[in-house]
Amino acid sequence: MTPWLVRAWFPMMRREMVRVARITDVKLRGMNHLKSAMDSGAGILITPNHSFHYDSYVLGHAAHECGRPFHFLTAWQVFAMSTPLQRWVMQRHGCYSIDRESADLGAFKRSVEILRSHPCPLVIFPEGDIYHTNDKIMPFREGSAAIALAAAKRAERPLVILPTAIQAQYVEDPTPGMLELMTRLEQAVHWRPRPDIPLVDRIYRFAEGLLALKELEYLGAPQSGTVRERTRSLADQILAAKEKRFDITPPNDAIPERVKELRRQFIQQLEKPDLSPESHSQLKNDMEDLFLVIQLYSYPGDYVAAYPSIERIAETLDKFEEDVLKVTYPKPRGTRHATVTFGAPIPVASDRGSRDAAALLTSQIEREIQSLLSQGRMATRGGI
To answer: Which domains does the chain have, with CATH numbers?
Structure first.
């Protein structure tokens, strides 16, 4: 990290945030929690939800406001997709990579060391992936809590976790762009566009059609039940078949953890020097199936129906644009404002030695962030 460069590049980062994320204003709430933790000299772990691309730019505003840059634990795929110049800039901004599909001890140790002794906060997104759910968190992975607990045992200073909520709200009506995208999605699967049907109904009609195709591919026939029930069932059956084939007992029912364990096994197999072409092809197909499972998992099923806000509708269409049209970074359909809310610090005790400590701490962080998101949704209810 190069702090003076982070400060110098802030105006450019702000312009880029407006250009690619169409976020023109960032509101910061709960900054007193962040500043008091900094003033106390504590090690600080910031754990935000991860609902949209470029949310790290939004956090950059908080770092600029408090006068201290943040470290970011970043998936290695982000570095792999970037140019050499972009990688250099990210590293100077405190980003370092982690391989989430393996036990990345290097990233773990570096994270612990930052929390033990570095003056700048560390940002870890506990969801691990971007799920496009602006006001609803997906189950957290336990890695961030495990890092915090490991650091607390070794640190000679207090250590706190700051649960953090990031939300974006449209201030310009995105409906024309969403309708145009819905038409392109229908055309992509050779359907006649149905502008005469309400947009929410078109979304669910499209989702059920895609799901039926995948059920036909993997199960032989479309299944009955709600979209939520069917997506979970299909994901479970795909994983169970592979776990049986490799004689793997899943660590728990959490789909991300089951995917992580299977992916680890597949990568180990793919690295064998004497692997036959047939086995290599099968394992590549297995990896693609795991990607499908994560896609299925990322659709809560009732997200739009439960509260059909402009943001939830737009997020669901963003996901379709990624998954169906293969767009890496969906473009927002209007100008947005973002809000970052820092919650009250959670002290991390150095003597949390129980086997369930990481799970318990993860659950606490989840509850705090979901509460902040729910409060934020109520504060902005109505929107456009």
So the answer is: 3-172+334-379 (3.40.1130.10), 185-323 (no CATH)
Write the burial class of residue 23 (CB in 10 Å: 0-12 exposed, 13-18 middle, 19+ buried).
Answer: buried
Q: Report d(CA 235, CA 243) in Å as an integer.
A: 12
Task: Give the whole-angstrom CA distance, residue 360 versus residue 368.
Answer: 13
Residue position matching structure tokens 């949390």: 352
Please state, in angstroms and rounded to a whole number, the distance separating the CA atoms of residues 283 and 264: 12
Cβ atoms of 231 and 211 within 8 Å: the answer is yes
Q: Residues with Cβ < 8 Å from 135, sequence gap 6 or more?
A: 167, 311, 312, 373, 374, 376, 377
What are the tens digits of pLDDT across the range 348-376?
987 766 668 888 999 999 999 999 999 88
**CA 15, 135, 37, 365 torsion-angle sign:** negative
Residues 245-273, mean pLDDT to the nearest whole number: 85
pTM comes to 0.87
Q: For residues 310 and 174, what is the distance between their CA atoms, to the nearest angstrom?
A: 8
Burial class (CB in 10 A: 0-12, 13-18, 19+), 326: exposed
Which residues, in sequence order, are bridge partners of residue 262?
none
**Distance set, CA 102 to CA 266, 267, 274 (Å):** 11, 9, 22
Measure Cα distances from 289 to 91, 213, 296 in Å: 32, 14, 11
